[in-house]
Amino acid sequence: MQKNISNILKSVQKPGRYTGGEFGQIIKDKDKVKMRIAFCFPDTYEIGMSNLGVKILYGALNEMQDVWCERVFAPWTDMEEQMRKNSVPLFALESKDNVKDFDVLAISLQYELCYTTAINLIDLAGLPIYAKDRDESMPVVLGGGPCAYNAEPVADFFDIFSIGEGEESLCELSQLYIDMKNNGTYTKSAFLREASHLNGFYVPSLYNVEYNEDGTIKLFEPKFDDVPKRVEKRVVEDLNTSYFPLKPVMPYIETVHDRIMLETFRGCIRGCRFCQAGMVFRPVREKSADVLNAQAQEIFKNTGYNEISLTSLSISDYSCLNDATDKLLEWTNKNKINLSLPSLRADSFTKELMRKVSGVRSSGLTFAPEAGTQRLRDAINKNLYEEDLLNAVRLAFEGGKSQVKLYFMNGLPTETYEDIEGISVLAKHVVDEFYKMPVRPKKPVQVTVSVSCFVPKPHTPFQWEPQDSLESLVEKQRFLGEKITDRKVRYNWHEAKVSRLEAVFSKGDRRLSKAIAHAVSKGIHFDAWDEYFDYDKWMEVFEECGIDPSFYANRRIGYDEILPWDVIDIGVNKSFLISENKKAYESKTTPNCKEKCSGCGANKLGKELTWCPKMK
Amino acid sequence: MVPQNEITPVRIKFSKTGDLMYISHLDLSRTMQRIMLRAGIDIWYSEGFNPQPKIVFAVPLPVGVESECELMDIKINSPMPFEEIKERIQNNFPSEMKVIDVYSPTQKFKNIGFIDYTIRLYTNASSEETCGKIEKLFKSECNIIKKTKSGEKEINISDYVKLAEAKNKASYIEIHAILSADSERYLNPELFIEAIKQNLNIMNSDGIEEFSTVYRNKMLDFDLNEFV
């Protein structure tokens, strides 16, 4: 380790965040590799190391002999202070080398509120934050992750974005880089131009954007004929054969998800109208129970973890769930390994499933009805009935659980105060269900109602919707607090100001980069952390930059308007999104992909797809 | 249930150096549980509602200290040759940890009385004179505030220092120290360094120029023989 880094670690909290050296980390000879990638997660080590995407891409890139991919996380503020004071630039954990000297700085953008942290990291690396100011000697700055589906607010800081699933496309991009370096044709601009021809890459500097007087987009088009008008997202076709990390890096310090994370399937059959993941991960692709079980055994052998979590967007929709859990339980029980199934749907929670997840260390159960009345649940296409939820909680209570957590949203399109009151009624019904039982668990019942604020997201049927005003959201939170009188119900709500800022950035355009740069220069970062989130400071930033946040967060957008994210093609047709948006206002539901294909268009992206009937 | 007579106690001596000095005792002990599982060591679990693999460490190593004499005891449910245990664990250790020895314990951890350290002070005040002052400091009464679980108390640190030999090495001072380490009278080497800083008024600069390193060489019993 560089002596400077080692010495400043003595004066920071949790130095284990910065040491690297974990079992499973990948070390290569830097003189023998042809390309070095700094893979950066713009949040703390504990959060970044819990991200399955990071594990997959780190492993997949390091499978390439000529590539060495290392990890970078955001130093906490105490460490950043020490680094700046002692002139230690941003370094990668494996080699401790400066990120500035790498070929590529890849930044994963998981949530809008990490933007300032991400841009601050570019600065901490000693690089100019704007792409146009970085010269040939500096790394290519690549963005990816869910926010890349509308990366316009940070477009000016990045050279290129990976759109969709990256485990295959990032290897192709790396090969292109190596080839161009080898045959002497590499310049940054030639590389970016060439990369724009690969599937799944968006180079923002190759597009012109013009605006109308009212602030809406007038024109958004490629500067050159060979640059695609729209960039189609990448999908991995077969999860049984695609790369999955079997020997992950083992953190020393406790991370958020310190366990085996097994991906069961991608995509979601449901199509909730507010949900971005449900749209952008289409179409559904599953891993077989046998592959899943074999991967689990191998990872257990390589890690020594005592918990396995089956991940997906909605685990009860995994068609091999019974088979897979049976196979797993055959060996996990005797090895004292706990099995957990997050993202359970209330309407498919069975006694058998209940028994399987009742491990030694199991706690309460969580369900997400999202809305308080059937009418609103239909409007958002949740397709869940009160009876389903009550059945599920009854099973949970019968199984000895007494804590249930329920997730809801405030501010959904078409919401009325009746719907909000419905949340308190539903929670009360859940409590009643507990007392209806003749024999009850010893621990008293507790129902936690957790309410977040609706944030309209790009590429969803609600992308044209305005967010509720801040005042209205706060008033609704207060109203619900008054309606919840049952002492067995605990009520939590999310800070509405945080959701408003999220709404600004999630539907933002390129003009917001000015605000982000200004915010970073004022020392704003770690917005996702309560202790650093400062709404008033952000409002100051917008005012100083002449930006009206309401234009982005609170304006109803017309169907015919050019959207900043129209350049990205997620495979789902706009006509489908419009029809879904209209159906919300009629409280009409759409069947899930298992029941009937609704023709969203995403089936064009895969070859052999499990659910899409048109493909069979 | 494994018959009681088949359970074999095993002592493992290992080193923990380099960047790993920043990994706390708590993190190390969680890591060690996983290492045992990976290594396929059939380790004995505590009984009860939430069974845990039973791993006992001799004297917890403070953050910032390197060591080549860490000791930990486990019990295994079925016999396995010590050489094999050593190899299996080594294969699952991170690169900055080495298994030094695996054997049957003969002494109890409560018989550890002292620990032998090499302490280096990288200071601008590195000189023969400073070395003399350091040695003299621990030969008479030297009071310092010690933080304990029950609050702060003033102690005479010299009572805890069996040996303190300082040598001037130009860019740093090297101190060979033997400090109390039994559970009743454990002295953290950081406090030893703090006493030097305070009394000699050296190493006051806050930064990366002046710093100290601490290295555990061996554990000793109350008679200053090596504890194994």
Strand portion of chain B: 35-45%
| CATH architectural name of the largest domain in chain B | 2-Layer Sandwich
Quaternary structure state of the chains depicted: heterodimer
DSSP summary: helix tally of chain B: 4
Describe the structure.
The complex is a heterodimer of chains A (616) and B (228). By secondary structure, chain A is α/β, with parallel strands linked by helices. Among the domains of chain A are: 3-217, 3-Layer(aba) Sandwich (Rossmann fold), CATH 3.40.50.280; 363-504, Transcription Regulator spoIIAA. Chain A has 20 helices and 19 strands. Chain A has helices spanning 3-8, 45-48, 52-62, 77-85, 115-124, 166-182, 188-195, 276-280, 289-303, 321-332, 351-357, 374-379, 386-398, 417-436, 470-483, 496-506, 513-521, 535-544, 549-553, 574-585; strands at residues 35-41, 67-73, 104-108, 140-144, 160-162, 201-202, 207-211, 217-222, 231-232, 260-263, 265-266, 285-286, 307-311, 338-340, 365-370, 403-410, 446-453, 489-493, 568-569. In chain A, 49% of the residues are buried. With 228 residues, chain B is α+β, with helices and mostly antiparallel strands. Chain B has helices at residues 25-39, 82-92, 128-137, 189-200; strands spanning 8-16, 55-57, 65-76, 97-103, 112-122, 143-148, 151-156, 161-168, 173-180, 211-221. In chain B, strand 2 (55-57) and strand 3 form a beta hairpin. Chain B is elongated. Classes of the chains: A alpha/beta (616), B alpha+beta (228). Chains A and B meet through helix 1 and helix 9 of A and helix 1 of B.
Summarize the structure.
Chain A contains 20 helices and 19 strands.
Features:
heterodimer, A: alpha/beta, Rossmann fold, 6-stranded mixed beta sheet, 4-stranded parallel beta sheet, 20 helices, B: alpha+beta, Alpha-Beta Plaits, 2 domains, 8-stranded mixed beta sheet, two-stranded antiparallel sheet, 4 helices
